[in-house]
Amino acid sequence: MKPRRIFALAGIVLVGACSEPKNDDPPTRQEVHSRDSGVATGQPGRHRYHCEDGRTLLVDYKDNGLRLDLLEKEGGPSRTLSAPTQELQYVGDGVTATFSGVQLRLVDDAGRVRICVPDGSR
Predict the structure, then answer these.
(1) Mean pLDDT, the chain, as a whole number?
(2) Eight-class DSSP state of 75
(3) Comparing C-alpha atoms, which of 59, 63, 37 is closest to residue 105?
(4) Which tens digits make up the pLDDT trace of 57-83?
């Protein structure tokens, strides 16, 4: 084998050995929707959640999944919550939100807890 080919093969092996290991963990809800900050039409990524109290909650994932806009009904006022990084709690005016699996857990200032799940995951 020519020396040039040996160096080329050695370089390929070294590059492959230095690459990051593949993450086999399933993506979080935030990661799944991190690209939903907008679509070609300009509409935000909106997802319908059903809550244990029987109400529906519309969730817009924005800012690469670091911001949530919560709407009780289409066209109604929204509450904006934000998180400093993935996997951390979202905080907004009078409410916090955390994800656990597919569940979205909302806690208001009075300590009332509301659990919601996305459509199709019941």
Answers:
(1) 78
(2) T
(3) 59
(4) 999 888 888 899 999 887 778 999 999
